[in-house]
């Protein structure tokens, strides 16, 4: 064999047998399924993380145990590459292969083949940092992970119970420690100091900020949120809600960013707390998604989603770049997906370049890296702003010629510190939103009025095989099943302001249909007609056909 510690792996692997008849897949968000069947996956991911580190010359690799906004019984795991970004996609396939080896001998031979074809030098060191969210299954899964790390001889650091973005931050901070690219002190405390320090500078001299309510989804954001609130003190008065991290079944239940986005309503637990006009926001179960909202004078709910955040933030950064005298020297661009509301795309495209990419953070992140400053947000609240290394150098060395330029430059420099450069962080994004609102003296209502969302509808269709659905043009066009797109196009043409697309989900066994139209009832009708087309085209049982499909 290729120098793998076969005996250690063998004996520990026997303690983490793969369940029969289960196929695991490393998808858009890593492995994700019921926590109760993930033990073998965690053990094997521990080994894989160690090997990834060896392959990258001992750089620190991150492992996050979470299932984000999913229900509490679910869990999951994903790997984080050295600069704090998502695992390189070619390794997703290796992860899937290793997770599915049926028993220990098959796992060992798959490992052996993998080490050889990937040319991993096993004599290199392995360093891994890991964390988990608040799910009850997390502790046992972390033990399985630790067995995997032990089997491969990795030097491991337990970052405890923390958010996904903090784990991403730690990975980059550990790998850049003592270099010229040092990202910050490699601790949660270091991260909070970095964010709160930048925030305080950015809002210095502005009017006092009115209290903000944060729905923590009864998840790990409640812990990080409490630490952050302490660092912020009076500069941003925060009230934390839904912090019941040890109440069974409470996680993401009737609360959190995904609840707000999909139900388009206030978490019921906030109805007696939120005052008209007050700003509130929801995090998801691992605090990497953010949704803002408010109630108007009549008590009506208004949602400010990832698209509204992108519009607010991108316009602000463009203004700062101009004010600093850097127009033409630093180009700002926006990345969205097909789910971005058409009104947001129109608003943004009138001001700066906008690119559309397939769903999933990694696609947006990579596209945003091509701009000097890349603002990316999914409508569901994932997102951040990336400043390219050249842009950061420019901001450091640039000599402003007026006091106004100097002020704007200072703000841009502080934004680089405030905004998580590794992955979107709901807490960092929240501070960013608060900075822009403070600078513009906008209330939530004024922010909301930047543009009006086009009425839209999202529908799920259960089909026999979602894998027959293939898309192109950033998921906006179906190429398979053949002929279906033509029928969709014909339908869309009949609706004023109509737009619709169909894509297979990356996380559930369903096909999703999105539709927009000028009038809400028409958006609903278009979505249900397209859903009906999808259902019939793919041989759905006429008896079980959902009655709302037209
Ligand atoms: C995952 C993705 C998210 C995407 C969602 C789409 C990450 C970290 N998460 O949650 O970005 O919006 O999947 O789900 O990439 P769907 O494919 O089921 O529609
Ligand atoms: Mg999440």
Structure description:
This protein has helices at residues 6-14, 39-55, 90-100, 104-117, 138-151, 164-176, 188-203, 221-232, 256-263, 306-323, 342-349, 361-368, 389-397, 403-418, 426-440, 444-448, 484-493, 520-537, and strands at residues 31-34, 60-65, 74-80, 127-132, 155-161, 212-215, 238-241, 280-283, 290-295, 301-304, 332-336, 354-356, 373-377, 383-387, 456-461, 470-472, 477-480, 499-504, 511-516. It is an alpha/beta fold and 550 residues long. It folds into four domains: 6-161, Alpha-D-Glucose-1,6-Bisphosphate, Chain A, domain 3, CATH 3.40.120; 189-302, Alpha-D-Glucose-1,6-Bisphosphate, Chain A, domain 3; 306-430 and 439-449, Alpha-D-Glucose-1,6-Bisphosphate, Chain A, domain 3 (3-Layer(aba) Sandwich), CATH 3.40.120; 456-537, 2-Layer Sandwich (TATA-Binding Protein), CATH 3.30.310.50. The strands form five sheets. Strands 1-3-2-4-5 form a five-stranded mixed beta sheet, with helices on both faces. Strands 7-6-8-9-10 form a five-stranded mixed beta sheet. Helix 2 (39-55) crosses helix 5 and helix 7 (188-203) runs parallel beside helix 15 (426-440). The structure holds 2-acetamido-2-deoxy-6-O-phosphono-alpha-D-glucopyranose and magnesium ion. Magnesium ion is lined by residues 68-69, 284, 286, 288-289. This is Phosphoacetylglucosamine mutase. InterPro entries: A-D-PHexomutase_a/b/a-I, A-D-PHexomutase_a/b/a-I/II/III, A-D-PHexomutase_C, A-D-PHexomutase_C_sf, A-D-PHexomutase_CS, AMG1_II, AMG1_III, PAGM. Its EC number is 5.4.2.3.
């Amino acid at each position: 064999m290729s120098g793998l510690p076969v005996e250690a792996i063998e004996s520990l692997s026997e303690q983490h047998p793969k369940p029969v008849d289960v196929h695991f897949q490393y998808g858009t968000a890593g492995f994700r399924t019921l926590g109760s069947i993930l033990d073998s996956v965690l053990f094997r991911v521990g080994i894989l993380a160690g090997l990834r580190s060896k392959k990258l010359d001992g750089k620190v690799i991150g492992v996050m145990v979470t299932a984000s906004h999913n229900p509490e019984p679910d869990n999951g795991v994903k790997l984080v590459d050295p600069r704090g970004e998502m695992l390189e996609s070619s390794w997703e396939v290796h992860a899937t292969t290793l997770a599915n080896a049926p028993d220990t001998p098959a796992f060992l031979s798959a490992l052996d083949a993998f080490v050889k074809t990937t040319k991993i030098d096993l004599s290199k060191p392995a360093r891994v940092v890991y964390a988990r969210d608040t799910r009850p299954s997390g502790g046992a899964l972390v033990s399985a992970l630790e067995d995997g790390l032990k089997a491969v001889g990795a030097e491991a650091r337990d970052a405890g119970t923390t958010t996904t973005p903090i784990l991403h931050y730690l990975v980059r901070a550990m790998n850049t420690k003592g270099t010229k690219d040092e990202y910050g002190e490699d601790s949660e405390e270091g991260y909070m100091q970095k964010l709160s320090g930048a925030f305080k500078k950015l809002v210095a001299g502005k009017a006092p900020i009115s209290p903000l309510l944060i729905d923590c989804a009864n998840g790990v954001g409640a812990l990080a949120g409490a630490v952050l609130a302490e660092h912020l003190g009076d500069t941003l008065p925060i009230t934390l809600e839904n912090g019941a991290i040890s109440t069974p079944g409470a996680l993401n239940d009737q609360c959190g960013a995904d609840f707000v986005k999909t139900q388009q309503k206030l978490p019921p637990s906030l109805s007696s707390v939120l005052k008209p006009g007050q700003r509130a926001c929801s995090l998801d179960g691992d605090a990497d998604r953010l949704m803002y909202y408010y109630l108007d004078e009549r008590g009506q709910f208004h949602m400010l989603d990832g698209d509204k955040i992108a519009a607010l933030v991108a316009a602000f950064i463009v203004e700062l770049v101009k004010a600093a005298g850097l127009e033409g020297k630093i180009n700002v661009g926006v990345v969205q997906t097909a789910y971005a509301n058409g009104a947001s795309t129109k608003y943004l495209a009138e001001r700066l370049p906008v690119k559309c990419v397939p769903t999933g953070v990694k696609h947006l992140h990579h596209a945003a890296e091509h701009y000097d400053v890349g603002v990316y947000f999914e409508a569901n609240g994932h997102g951040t702003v990336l400043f390219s290394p050249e842009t950061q150098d420019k901001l450091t060395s640039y000599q402003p010629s007026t006091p106004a330029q100097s002020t704007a430059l200072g703000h841009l420099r502080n934004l680089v510190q405030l905004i998580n450069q590794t992955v979107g962080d709901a807490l960092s994004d929240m501070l960013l939103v608060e900075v822009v609102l403070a600078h513009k003296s906008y209330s939530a209502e004024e922010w909301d009025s930047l543009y009006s969302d086009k009425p839209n509808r999202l529908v799920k269709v259960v089909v026999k095989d979602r894998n027959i659905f293939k898309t192109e043009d950033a998921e906006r066009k179906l190429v398979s099943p053949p002929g279906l797109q033509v029928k969709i196009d014909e339908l869309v043409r009949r609706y004023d302001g109509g737009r619709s697309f169909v894509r297979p989900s990356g996380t559930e066994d369903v096909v999703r249909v999105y539709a927009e139209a000028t009038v809400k009832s028409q958006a609903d009708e278009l979505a249900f007609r397209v859903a009906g087309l999808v259902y019939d085209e793919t041989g759905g049982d006429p008896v079980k056909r959902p009655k709302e499909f037209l």
